[in-house]
Amino acid sequence: MKPVTIAIAGAGDRGRTAYAPYVLENPKEGKVVAVAEPIAARRKMTIEAHGIAAENVFTDWKEMAAKPKLADAVIIATQDRDHKEPAIAFAKKGYHMLLEKPMAPTAEDCRAIVKAVKDAGVIFAVGHVMRYSAYWKKLKSVIDSGVIGKVVAVQHLEPVGYWHQAHSFVRGHWGNSVKSSFMLLAKSCHDIDMLRFIIGKKCLSASSFGSLSHFRKEGKPKGGGTRCVKCGVEPTCPYSAKKIYLTGKTEWPVSSISDDLSPEGIKKAVETGPYGRCVYECDNDVVDHQVVNLLYEGGVTASFTMCGLTDNCGRQTRVMGTLGQLVGNRSTLSHYDFLTDKEVVIDPNVETDAMGHGGGDWGLIRDFLAAVSAGDASLISSGPDVSLETHLTVFAAEEARLKGTVEKVV
Ligand SMILES: NC(=O)c1ccc[n+]([C@@H]2O[C@H](COP(=O)([O-])OP(=O)(O)OC[C@H]3O[C@@H](n4cnc5c(N)ncnc54)[C@H](O)[C@@H]3O)[C@@H](O)[C@H]2O)c1
Description:
This protein has helices at 13-17, 20-25, 40-50, 61-66, 84-92, 107-120, 134-144, 162-171, 183-186, 189-199, 241-245, 263-272, 360-374, 384-403; strands at residues 4-9, 30-36, 57-58, 73-76, 96-99, 124-126, 151-159, 203-211, 289-296, 301-307, 316-321, 324-328, 333-337, 342-346, 407-408. The chain is α/β, with parallel strands linked by helices. The strands form two sheets. Strands 14-13-12-11-7-10-9-8-15 form a nine-stranded mixed β-sheet, with helices on one face. A six-stranded parallel β-sheet has the order 3-2-1-4-5-6, sandwiched between helices. It starts with a strand and ends with a strand.
């Protein structure tokens, strides 16, 4: 079998570091043969890592899409508001496609993308990586085995983590909903998708509450500066950029604040870049806590809580069925049986699958390449129809939050 050839549109954090390293480890499955990326340092790193020929290097995805088709598949990992146009353009050219989540910031744009990929008949996967991780696959397989009977209700918590909230959703790319996406779409579209995966039924309606409580100008402590490097209260602030980034480490989240990861480069980013700003002085508007209640076919319910003011303890889920319950937090998974009143601890086997997002990043690219190679879209679990459905659930929930209503998922 020939390796699947891949073009990368947007070689930022995800495009360059989430999926592409998989083919360096597994060269029989795929090869990166083209890249489009405006930032020279990122282009260079991608060219060097994959040995890309000069004629296949571009500064904009539009130039790449204008050429005759130069790879079997494209990974689109530009920012949230820059997905629709490349997705439609590459679909028209016949590229199979791995599109980062969220598909797009509006329901209309998501529908347009799905129409384009279906019209083109290409294999399409959305970056809902949790579906491909060992832990979530195990949890789903236990439900599917029938041991907890019929699923009646799910309670799911996403504790984003205080520093992750400050990094990505206050100082970072996804802090401002007009420039990127609202919080439920940017972060929790994974969770709403996962609830659909677990429950295995369509979501019918949603209600939601939530707001931005903490990371606002009013919350700024007395004596605080506009940047952490010049702040009188910095040593007492848990969100201090010095505390988060000047650790001597270079892995994420530090890797996303600068392309220069030398100690000087990181220091400069904290001193002058967006990630050194006071968390109470940013242009963020996305919520820092939100609850969503969902009703599914057959009367199944789910309640979801996202909160940025937590430790970094990982998602926690309780699935309640007619014969038993499952409780999991990725490190542990346990099944309580109502007949025997016994709890059994299940090994979610996470150590075997330890790359980004609990193995989900590599699980997705592995299954995507297998699907393209075999021409078999059934190997993808985050395909166009279900991904559209779960994005529409997210849009309904957000509308419910904004209007204070219960919204149907349509
Ligand atoms: N699946 C997941 O779990 C997950 C996790 C984080 C982010 N994401 C999503 O992945 C996407 C990318 O996020 P990121 O963190 O890599 O962002 P990023 O900003 O690091 O990367 C985006 C890249 O696109 C490039 N770009 C901009 N305009 C371009 C153009 N015209 N042509 C080609 N490239 C262009 C930018 O220069 C940048 O390098 C976002 O939609 C984000 O929400 C998904």
